[in-house]
From TrEMBL:
It comes from Paraburkholderia dioscoreae. One of its GO terms (molecular function) is aminopeptidase activity. It is an enzyme of class 3 (hydrolase). Its EC number is 3.4.11.25. Keywords: Aminopeptidase, Hydrolase, Protease. This is Beta-peptidyl aminopeptidase BapA. Belongs to the peptidase S58 family. Pfam families: Peptidase_S58.
Length: 364
């Protein structure tokens, strides 16, 4: 008899989650999605706002780590040089990066007409993953309007799964997409939140590890014994491809150098799920802080007291845990999707009705 399906991924580690369990647990952070779901077009846009003000006038400190650079993102060079964000963060499919970047520029110019004239130009920031297995990526279906709709939809009520940019994504040969998580830690005697949002589109089924359990290997062995259309397992010999974008937010007062260090720890959470950052995988993490803003055009900037490097370990741990949790959230929350040319990805929950039993700890 099949056991009931579980709706939530198992909690990773011992650190507590925030009340929402999403990146929106970090004060001020909101997320919006625009989902395109029409036959062969299965894609979308996801927008992350670090605060509800003007991101160009009030920039936030940020830094990125390129763990594996097989990607087509835009805007990373200036983030690396200046250490700030000046637009919302946008996620979409590979062929839609240019359209979304142009929409970001138009939105910034509407808000501040001096951009590119009396003022400097604006740095759009767009990340991507290749959803071409499910989505007709050659249709170039995403337009500037879809970015605008995702931005207008931003709120603290953050959806996960087959939504927004995650609509056409695959993860461990199952349905992937958007995942969320948060962790609350104490550092230097104060409480801070670390939140993560991922666009998960990577991995081969036999590699999938869930909180230390080799779930993917178990499922692949089961599929090898019993032919099933539910899993459609990809041979383990096929190289890992795809990508993952990991966005990490915190309310801890960190500068760009420290945020670079924090972003690198996202790779620890990614590795725990079974990824080896394969040749064809673009694995990029960006971290930002909402603890203060950097005013545009200021002559001097007053920073709050920053956490000492020796006090960062709890944040590093929270980053790794929240990224791992967010990847599992993407797998658990995703709905099955049929897309171009009859291609289909079943969700983990649809594929494995006895998932509860598989995840029970093995007897000692």
């Amino acid at each position: 008899m099949n056991l009931p399906k579980i709706q939530n991924a198992p909690h990773v580690g011992t650190l507590p989650a925030g009340p929402l369990g999403t990146i929106a647990d970090v004060p001020g952070v909101t997320v919006g999605h625009c989902t395109l779901d029409e036959g062969a077009v299965q894609t979308g846009v996801t927008v992350i706002r670090p605060h509800d003000g003007d991101p160009f006038l009030d920039k936030v400190p940020a830094a990125a780590s390129v763990i594996n650079g097989f990607g087509k993102s835009i805007g990373l060079v200036q983030v690396e040089e200046l250490g700030t964000l000046e637009t919302p963060i946008a996620l979409t499919n590979t062929f839609s990066v240019a359209a979304v970047a142009q929409a970001q520029i138009r939105a910034a110019v509407r808000a501040d007409p001096q951009i590119g004239r009396e003022w400097s130009t604006v740095n759009p920031l767009v990340f991507e993953c290749n959803d071409g297995y499910l989505n007709d990526i050659q249709a170039l279906a995403v337009t500037g309007q879809h970015f605008d709709e995702a931005w207008a939809a931003t709120s603290s009520d953050v959806a996960s799964g087959s939504v927004g940019a995650g609509r056409g994504m695959s993860c461990f040969d199952l349905k992937g997409g958007i995942g969320n998580a948060s962790r609350v830690v104490s550092a230097a005697g104060r409480s801070y939140t670390v939140g993560a949002l991922v666009l998960a589109n990577f991995g081969r089924l036999p590699m999938l590890t869930v909180d230390g359990t080799p779930l993917g290997r178990m499922l692949a062995e089961r599929a090898a014994k019993v032919e099933t259309a539910a899993l459609s397992a990809t041979p383990a010999t096929k190289p890992e491809q795809g990508s993952i974008i990991m966005i990490v937010a915190t309310d801890a007062p960190l500068d760009a150098r420290q945020l670079k260090r924090l972003s690198l720890r996202a790779g620890a959470g990614l590795a725990r799920t079974g990824s080896v950052y394969g040749h064809g995988s673009g694995d990029i993490a960006l971290a930002f802080s909402t603890a203060y803003t950097v005013p545009h055009g200021a002559d001097f900037i007053t920073l709050p007291p920053l956490l000492a490097d020796e006090r960062l370990d709890p944040l590093f741990r929270a980053c790794a845990d929240s990224v791992e949790q967010a990847i599992l959230d993407a797998l658990w929350r995703a709905a099955s999707v049929a897309g171009r040319d009859g291609h289909r990805r079943l969700s983990l929950r649809d594929s494995v009705p006895d998932l509860v039993q598989l995840l029970k700890p093995a007897p000692r």
